[in-house]
Amino acid sequence: MSNNRVHGDLNNTEVMRKTNSLVPDPAYDGKTLAIPEAEDDAEIRAKYRPFITSPEVTSSDWIAKSELSTALKMAEADMEKTGGDRLKILVLYGSLRERSYSRLLAFECSRILWRLGADVRVYDPSGLPVKDDVQHQHPKVQELRELSKWSDGHVWVSPEQHGNLTAVFKNQIDWVPLSTGSVRPTQGRTLAIAQVSGGSQSFNTVNSLRILGRWMRMFAIPNQSSVPMAYTQFTDAQDPADHDAFVQAEGGSRLKPSGNRDRVVDVMEELFKYTLVMRQHFDLFGDRHSERKEREVKRLREIEVTKKEEKAGVEGNATSMITANTVNGIDVKGA
């Protein structure tokens, strides 16, 4: 028994599993695995990567200075093993305001994952129709569904309004079906969740997001982020025309130093690690006993239908031969 008891071991520390502390590698200080602009798809970059700032900012901002050596090592090893197949992360946010704090937080999350080498795409919910059973072919609906199918993992960031997630955010999830034919757009993906609040810290929205993720058959990582009084947590917007001030402000509208910002890094780092480990077993995690049974029943039913069709075809051919006057040009009726 350990003698290092904490308050009579009310926290049950004596049963904790022994872990090894990973030592940061200074060789990765400031290192980035982000897709170089010359190698990136220009159309995708313009449409789905609004979080990217100028090279001067990206190379010197707070994210570039964050200690992420373990995740960077993992990413390097994985890309070498897979021939450069980067993690694919879809980011969703839940507000259409001009200065949306959920969007600003989503951008910061994206920048962290971008530095780690992920292919990050942020979906803009503007123009997405309210969920109904008619507009399935709407371009914004199809775009969202295709992005989800493309992804390995998601980041969901919603404001808290009236004690829960916003309609803007929920509408996006409602448009993503559990299945599209034989494809499940969200099943087996990893998920990181975060919320912003106008008042004191709350966890109502992240709790609801976690329930949603489970319902969509996703693996929500244990960690989460809740940013209170979001209007106090971000710097002011900055005009890019004032170059020096823009670089000094890291592009403006950035998360201020705080424990909340550290937690955001924790969550994104955790999402990246979980997704990296789980992606190689994607098919395994999507394999279910009940679905195997359904596929077998369907297969047997199709075999039975095929047999009946073949039997009907043979009987039909026999009837035709009996009633025909000639077969292969020979008069079988003796006429």
UniProtKB/TrEMBL annotation:
Domain NADPH-dependent FMN reductase-like: from-to ranges: 88-230
Q: Where is the chain membrane-spanning?
A: none
Protein name per Swiss-Prot or TrEMBL: Arsenate resistance ArsH
Which cofactors does this gene product need?
A: FMN
* UniProt keyword Translocase present: no
Alphabetized GO MF terms: nucleotide binding; oxidoreductase activity, acting on NAD(P)H, quinone or similar compound as acceptor
The record lists the organism as: Aureobasidium pullulans EXF-150
Q: Provide the alphabetized UniProt keywords.
A: Flavoprotein, FMN, NADP, Nucleotide-binding, Oxidoreductase
Q: How does it assemble?
A: Homotetramer.
